[in-house]
């Protein structure tokens, strides 16, 4: 009797585990709603990861390279696809953001894809952001133009300012998540309106 009860409990636990794994796999294959663009060395272990974890707890599918990519993934293919599929981009600007080709490429792709971008200026002023040809970041002239256009667009977008020496990490993460939620609701409402207007009676 006791052995049968233990066997039933184990079978139920296995079934629950299988269901949880299946749900996790299905969820991981859905397109992300939010893409977090950041300079890893500056903000990965602080605001970017905190924001990703907070959004995940709110059940908002988000993309952060070290959380969503696995060995064997092609960098540009995976990143470009995630940006094209997402609804909102968060650009976490930091002092060395413009030293990263990937950061600038991702930002330019947001702008070119006409995605809503929420800037977070972390320890940097918008006026300090500029793509230039440096020894550690050799850029072609057309890339400099492309990246600077994207940076200018971001500078002209209302964002969140954060000073890591004075500010509270929890406050900026909560504010950013609130803006993301509002943006996702606005985008969904707009899509619903567009679908309604296309219905022919």
UniProtKB/TrEMBL annotation:
Ranges for domain TIR: 30-155
SMART domains cross-referenced by the UniProt entry: TIR
InterPro entries the record matches: TIR_dom, Toll_tir_struct_dom_sf
Alphabetical list of Gene3D superfamilies matching this protein: Toll/interleukin-1 receptor homology (TIR) domain
Protein's GO biological process: signal transduction
Protein name: 2' cyclic ADP-D-ribose synthase BdTIR
Source organism of this protein record: Nicotiana tabacum (Common tobacco)
Lineage: Eukaryota, Viridiplantae, Streptophyta, Embryophyta, Tracheophyta
